[in-house]
Amino acid sequence: MSKFSLFLLLFTLSSGAVLYAQEDDLLALLGEEEETIEYANASFKTNRVINLHSLESTSAGVLDIKISHRFGTLNRGAYELFGLDNASIRIGGDYGITDQLTVGLGRSSYQKTFDGFVKYKFLRQSKGKKVMPVTAAILATTAIQSMKWQNPDRENYFSSRMYYTFQLILGRKFSENFSLQVSPTVVHRNLVKTAAEAHDVYAIAAAGRIKLTKRVALNAEYTYVLPDQLLPGFRNALSVGFDIETGGHVFQLHFTNSTSMIEPGLVTQTVETWGNGGIHFGFNVSRVFTVVRPKIQ
Amino acid sequence: MKKITIAVACLLMAGTALQAQKYFTRDGNVAFFSSTPIENIEAHNSKATSVLDTESGRMEFAILIKAFQFEKALMQEHFNENYMESSTYPKATFKGAVKDWSKVNLSKEGEYPVIVAGDMTIHGVTQTVEAPGVITVKGDAIYAASEFPIAVADYDIEIPAVVRDNIAKEVKVTVAIDYQPLSR
User: Fold this and answer.
1) Helix (H) or strand (E) holding A141
2) What CATH number should be reported for the domain holding residue A278?
3) Does the beta carbon of B5 lie under 8 angstroms from any beta carbon of chain A?
4) Touching A: B residues 98-157, CB under 8 Å
5) Residue A212 vs residue A195, higher pLDDT
6) Which of A233, B9, B36, B175 is deepest in the core (most CB within 10 A)?
7) Which residue of A has its CA nearest to B163?
């Protein structure tokens, strides 16, 4: 037998052996899987942290009905059952037009305010085939305060009731349990009480979430208003609370020094402080309804 | 002599090629159904990967948990976040074999009822399972279908008290695979 034949024979035998060894893992025969884009989801349990918008949007075709309460402040004492005798309410609904585009409407009892918003998520945190470190969304809101004019005799303009907010929400889900976001914000007020107050109020808000269990998360948010824009006596809003999730509901229970639940009030009308017990206990209840069912392949 | 050696080598090669006859899919359908008096839940996955070794009857599956699609977005989120923990356990797998593979004659068209047995891993927990299935041979194609129940508790998937009446303790799983020959 020539050397060549021997080599050929050995080669064939060994290649057979190699093949046999590989067969232990059948799926490995398919080779590397094609990498997919994996988007981060559930950075926050719902599209609000407490008062602030979170980086989450409402899913396409889903209606999220929100009923929110803020009781009076704890420092009102036992006579008013630590604020529970008073309540301020907002009823609203958010709808997901696409997975990235959410619109919403609401009505707050505080200053009888109607509000509407459009929120567009233009970057989604992802890993895998496409790596994007952050999620980013832009939020635009309009609020219309509908209280009776304080001075009906003077010429009043409807535009004086309007407030606008623009906010950029930048955030990241750092781990399964920890998410953080920062929101540069500007609130425009068409009418202010005195010339010393700014029409455009700039603020930076930050919010975070720590997931304690699969269904309970601890949230906190703080809004820092840049100095010399508001009169003395106005404060930064700090809120701390829990998200409790049960199937289609998310219950958010929290403490906050902001009476208003929407951006113009949160940024420019917070007067209570944590220091003297000016803290409202409150809750948001969110219930989702799937209005348009997505087609499943 | 040399010719004989080459002939033997060729034969061996042919033998290996035959032995290595594998079928596969990357877009197999796997679905599950949970039905309770309160609510029916179903989810579909059309990205299941599977390889079938037609020599031995061995088969393997890998299913990406995040690829299950639900009608309700929040359900899909909860499925991944709370129940399957798909970031920690991204895949469900099955490694096993058609027990009575000898019954299946690939050169003859027809439906062959079989029993598949092996190790199923879901949510990081491995269980030995056995399920009935049907292998259909039609022309060059091989179809495989199966339907079997999975007890959620067997895989350490916790269902909290609030939704205990909404989620079935046993979910029905259906598998439908259209195998293609694996060419190498």
Assistant:
1) strand A135-145
2) 2.40.160.40
3) yes
4) none
5) A212
6) B175
7) A247
Number of structural domains (chain A) is 1
For B135-152, write each residue's pLDDT tens digit. 999 988 899 999 999 999
The ipTM is 0.77
**A217–B contact, CB cutoff 8 A:** no
CATH number of B21-181: 2.40.128.110
CA–CA distance, B88 with B84 (Å, rounded to integer): 9
Q: Is A27 on the interface with B (CB under 8 A)?
A: yes
Residues A44 and A42: their CA atoms lie apart, in Å, by 5
pTM (two decimals): 0.82
Structural domain spans, chain B: 21-181
- Chain A contact for B46 (CB, 8 A cutoff): yes
pLDDT exceeds 70 at position A148: yes
B16–A12 C-beta distance less than 8 A: yes
The half-sphere exposure of B139 on its side-chain side, counting CA atoms within 13 A, is: 5
User: Is A196 part of any domain?
Assistant: yes
Contact B155, B123 (CB under 8 A): yes
Instruction: Determine the 3-state secondary structure of A256 from DSSP.
Output: strand
B162-183: per-residue pLDDT in tens? 888 889 999 999 999 999 988 7
